Amino acid sequence: MAKALAQMSELVRAASLRQVRLVCGVVLFAYVVSHLLNHALGNISVDAMEVGVYYHVLFWQFLPVAIIFYAAALIHMGLGVYALYQRRQFRWRTIEPLQLVLGLSIPALVMAHVIGVRLGQTLYGHQKLYPQELYLFFVASNRIWTMTILLIIAWVHGCIGIYFWLRLKPFFTRAAPYLLAAAVLIPTLALLGVYQGGRSVAIEADDGEWRTHNLTSRQVGTTAEANTLDRITGGLTIGYVGLLGLALAARGVRAWRERRGGMIALSYGNGKTVRVPKGLSVLEASLRHNVPHASVCGGRARCSTCRIRVIGDHGVLPEPSQREAFVLTRVGTTDPSIRLACQLRPTSDLSFFQLFTAHTLSANAQASTPARIGQERYLVSLFVDMRGSTQLAEKRLPFDTVFIVNRFLGAVSQAVIENGGQPNQFVGDGMLALFGLSTDPQTACRQALKAAAGIAAHVDELNELLSHDLRQPIRFGIGIHGGEVIIGDIGYRDHIVFTALGDAVNVAARLQDMTKTLACEAVVSEEVRRTAGVADDSLPQQEVAIRGRDEPMAVRVVADVRGLTALVDGSERVAA
Fold it and tell me: What is the pLDDT of residue 418?
């Protein structure tokens, strides 16, 4: 019980207006997806659209669901207007202000449709379904273009929000192609369905009997009722536009008060000083003055890359918000002088320096993919090194040595790729391979063990091929370990590589070195053996000291890696 309460408390601390807006947005996006799929049934027939809308209405007008939906719509709209007021800078990413503008335009565009259908039903008992709506759009007026624009805007706005939400998730790279396909197909099929349904209704509308049965006053209402609904629509639209104007006016008043409230100086610790009004966050100040400032999440307090260390007295600073405190706690920071630049709004002069210099990621830089901007996940690292390359180079021409080393690295890489891994870094005659970028930990461990056996097989083939030119066969050493690492782009400007950093990678390198003293082909950590499900008595165990670790580490010594495939296959059969 105490653990559950602690977890609930942590979730509450992590919540913010952005999280509330996200939840509301997901509810609304689910409604849009359902509605568009219903439109797509028009590619079959109008009757199919009517059958689909029956179940659509049955779900979304179920009282608890309806309360959640309308509450989400009102809250999302209100938070959108508040975001217009709150946002001081619009240069973080071009796509963010676009999303905001699209979102704010949706209520004005959808007002007439919502009032005509839902309020018409509530006030007058109208029964407008697809035949009536398609007739009004295609035959009675030219409103189909307005609804097409609304559909596209709502879909694009929702897709941008979903992208910002999911792009930092571990599965996004694998799911992205399917999400893109859905993002293109769903609105396309919906628009085609509306068009086909509209054509069918336009043809049938020439029949007087069809008009008699489908355009009664109970279904579409009277002229007086339509005029009343139009006046309500006009009044609410004017009110909404006035609300947006009020938010813009409030922004102007805030800017005026900030200027009157005085300016403060922000010193970046490298000689750069800027003067900004009180109330701006440090990150916003960087944006305003084009000072590079790392911020992967765009100032959402969803990462800690904008962290700064305050120089001097930090006691006069505002207390961290719940969201800021949550993020700092997650990254293990207890030093009160370390703050998030996107959340800290100083009221007096401030000196600081950035903990992450923005070589390639500035405050307005765009992140490419979640894996590229930094992500923590479980990976298995495999280090392999060619033995005797120094002696090989002593008795050969340099180009001959490079040729043989390249053939060795090619054989190793082929074995890694065949078993689901990714060659990552080449250092001299050695290589780091990563497993688990798109698989679960157990699969990654099994793939790494099979890759070790594959390396031996490919090197055997290489030794046979080069037997006429080698004094002795090529030998190798392999170290394998798994654990939580950080993956992302590392480097400077044009010299950036995607790699993994962490203790698990370092340990794998140490285990590879140990193959020399232990006179074996591979040293596998107990973590990898256990996670892969290999039998405990299948490989000899040994306690070894790892440089940089206080406690000895249990490892498995593999004299001949060629038998690892059989061990892994055996464990898989037992598990099955």
Answer: 92
Largest alpha-carbon pair distance within the chain? 100
What 3-state DSSP class applies to 264? strand
Q: Which two tokens stand for residue 102?
A: 């699209």
Dist CA 374 CA 53 (whole Å)? 44
Q: Which residue matches tokens 């699209």?
A: 102
CA dihedral 417, 421, 422, 426 (to 10 degrees): -90
Question: Which alpha helices (H) appear in 167-314, and where do they start and end?
Answer: 172-204, 208-214, 217-220, 223-261, 282-288
Coil, helix or strand at residue 352: strand
- First CA to last CA distance, the chain: 36
Residue ranges and CATH numbers for the domains of the chain are 11-252 (no CATH), 264-354 (3.10.20.30), 375-575 (3.30.70.1230)
* 309, containing H or E segment: strand 307-311
Cβ burial 132-155 (10 Å sphere, 16+ → b, else e): bbbbbbbbeeebbeebbebbebbb
Please give the C-alpha separations between residue 218 and each of 122, 131, 212, 223, in angstroms, as whole numbers: 12, 14, 12, 12
> What was the pLDDT predicted at 107?
92
CA–CA gap between residue 36 and residue 80 (Å, rounded): 23
Q: What's the number of CA atoms in the CB half-sphere (13 Å) around residue 148?
A: 15
Whether the Cβ atoms of residue 494 and residue 530 lie closer than 8 Å to each other? no
Contact 323, 331 (CB under 8 A): no
Residue position matching structure tokens 């065949």: 418
Phi-psi domain of 312 (left: phi exceeds 0; alpha: psi -120 through 50; beta: other): left
Question: Which DSSP letter does residue 331 get?
Answer: T
Other CB atoms within 10 Å distance of the CB of residue 127:
14
- Upper half-sphere CA count for residue 102 (Cβ side, 13 Å): 19
C-alpha torsion sign, points 551, 557, 562, 567:
negative
Average pLDDT per run of 10 along the chain, which is 576 residues long? 48 60 92 94 93 92 93 92 77 68 90 86 85 83 82 93 81 87 95 92 85 85 88 92 92 80 81 83 85 74 80 83 82 81 88 70 40 70 84 60 83 93 86 90 93 93 80 89 84 72 89 91 93 88 83 90 89 70
The DSSP code for 168 is T
CB contact at 8 A, 341 and 282: yes
| Dist CA 413 CA 410 (whole Å) | 5
Distance CA 328, CA 319 (A): 13
Residues 290, 296, 297: CA angle, nearest 5 degrees: 105
- How high is the pLDDT of residue 370? 40
User: What is the Cα–Cα distance from 457 to 72, expressed in whole angstroms?
Assistant: 59
